[in-house]
Amino acid sequence: MNDDTLNSPAALRAHILELASRFHAMVHTAKPFVAGETYIPASAKVMAPDDMRHLVDASLDMWLTTGRFAVDFEKRFATFTGRKNALLVNSGSSANLLAVSALTSSLLKEERLRPGDEIITVAAGFPTTLNPILQNGCIPVFIDIDIPTYNPDVSLLEEALSDKTRAVIFAHTLGNPFDVGKVQEFCRNHGLWLIEDCCDALGSTFGGKKVGTFGDIATYSFYPAHHITMGEGGAVTTDNPFLQKIVESMRDWGRDCWCPPGKDNTCKKRFSRKLGDLPVGYDHKYTYSHIGYNLKVTDMQAAVGLSQLNQVEGFIAARKRHFQLLREGLDELKEYLILPVATHNSDPSWFGFPIALRENAPLSKNQLTERLEERRVGTRPLFGGNLLRQPAYRDIPHRVVGTLNGTDFTMNQVFWIGVHPALDQERIDYVIHTFHQLLANA
C-alpha cells in the first residue's frame, strides 16, 4: 500500500489495525509445548489478533478515560449476564467494594447498612469478598463450607441469623455455583440484601439460570486469570435502577451528576438545583451525594473487553471440556484424591479444578504441589485458605457459627490446577500423567 491510498484518517486507521493484527500473529502466537519444560500455569489469558485491533483502535481515539467502548461493553455485558444494568470498574475487588458500599447509602433510608450490622459470608475464599464488609464497619459472620463443592454450607444460614443481620455475600467458588436458590429464599424470608461474587463464575448457571441474576447486586472480574480479560477491570450488575444510580455515583467520585466524562448538562438543570446546604444553582457536576472513589476503567481496557466478549462462549466451553478431561483422567486416583463435584442443579463455568488430598495419600499437600511445580505444572491454594488465620485478619471483629473444620481442611489439604482455554489435549494429558506418576508410584 502506498502513501496515496492513505490520504484519509479512516484509511490510515484501517491500515494501522491491519498491521496490528499481523503483528499479533507474528509475535504473540503460542509456542510449541515441550513436556517437562513448558510451564502449564493454573490460570492464563487467551488473546487473539482482534484483541490487539480493539486495543489499538481505542488508543487511536486518544480518549484515555471511559468512552465509547466502555458504553458499548456495559450494554453488551448486561445483556450477556441477563441483567438490566452493568457498570464497568477497574477491578473485581473494586466491584465488591462498590457492591457493599452502595448498600450503606443514605438514599436507602431504613434499608441501608450501618456500622455494626452483620453480613453472613465465609472465611474460605479471596480477601476482597471479605474486605468491603470490614471497610464499611460491618461485622462478618462466618459459616463453614462443604467439601467437595467448596461452597457455603447453607444448612447453617438460619443459625447464623441474628437481629443484626442485614446482608449475605458469597462467591461462587472457582466457578462452582453455591446453592443460590436456597440462599435467595433465605434472604427474601428475612429481608436481607444478597450480593453474588461472580468474579470466578462468568457463564455458570444454577437451575438453568445464570448466576449473578439471583442477588440484588453481582460482581465480576476481568483480571487476566478470569473468563475474559481487559488486563485490569471488573463490573457491577443489578436490575435495581436505584442501586445502579448509587453504584455509579460511588464509582465516579461520589458525585450526584450522571453526565459521562466530556459531556455536560444532559439534565438541562446543571445550574438550577438546590442540594444539601449548597447555594441554589451550585454546579451539579461538582455536587456530591456520596463519599465515593474514582474506580473507572480506560477505554483501551473496555475495547479489549469487547473483543474478549466476542469469544466468551468458546472460552466457557473450553473450561467445561478441560474440567471433564481432568475429572476422567484423575478418577483412578480417588483413593488419594477428593475430586471436585458441581453443586446440585448447577452447570459450572469452571475457573479451576480443586483437588483435596486425602489423609492416606503418600505425599503431603506441600510435597505434591512442590513436585508438580518442579515438573512445570502450576498450582494454587484455594486463595486465602482460612482468612481468619491470615496475619491481616487475626484481630478483626467477627462471629463464627459452629466450626470452620471444612475451611481449615481446605487450607491444609486443598489446591487447584488450571482448566483455562490456553490448555490443549497435549498439556492436559501431561498433567494427568504427572499426577499418576507422582501418586501411583510414590
Could you explain the architecture of this structure?
- By secondary structure, this protein is α/β, with parallel strands linked by helices.
- The chain has two domains: 31-254 and 289-442, Type I PLP-dependent aspartate aminotransferase-like (Major domain) (Aspartate Aminotransferase, domain 2, 3-Layer(aba) Sandwich), CATH 3.40.640; 263-288, no CATH class.
- 35% of the residues lie in helices and 14% in strands.
- The protein has helices spanning 9-27, 49-61, 68-81, 92-102, 127-135, 157-160, 180-190, 241-251, 299-309, 312-329, 365-374, 405-413, 425-440, and strands at residues 85-89, 118-122, 139-143, 165-171, 193-197, 205-206, 209-210, 217-221, 234-238, 337-338, 346-347, 352-357, 380-381, 399-400, 414-418.
- The strands form three sheets. An eight-stranded mixed β-sheet has the order 1-9-8-5-4-2-3-14, with helices on both faces.
- Strand 4, helix 7 and strand 5 (193-197) form a beta-alpha-beta unit.
- Helix 10 packs parallel to helix 13 (425-440).
- The longest helix has 19 residues, at 9-27.
- The protein is flat, with a radius of gyration of 24 Å.
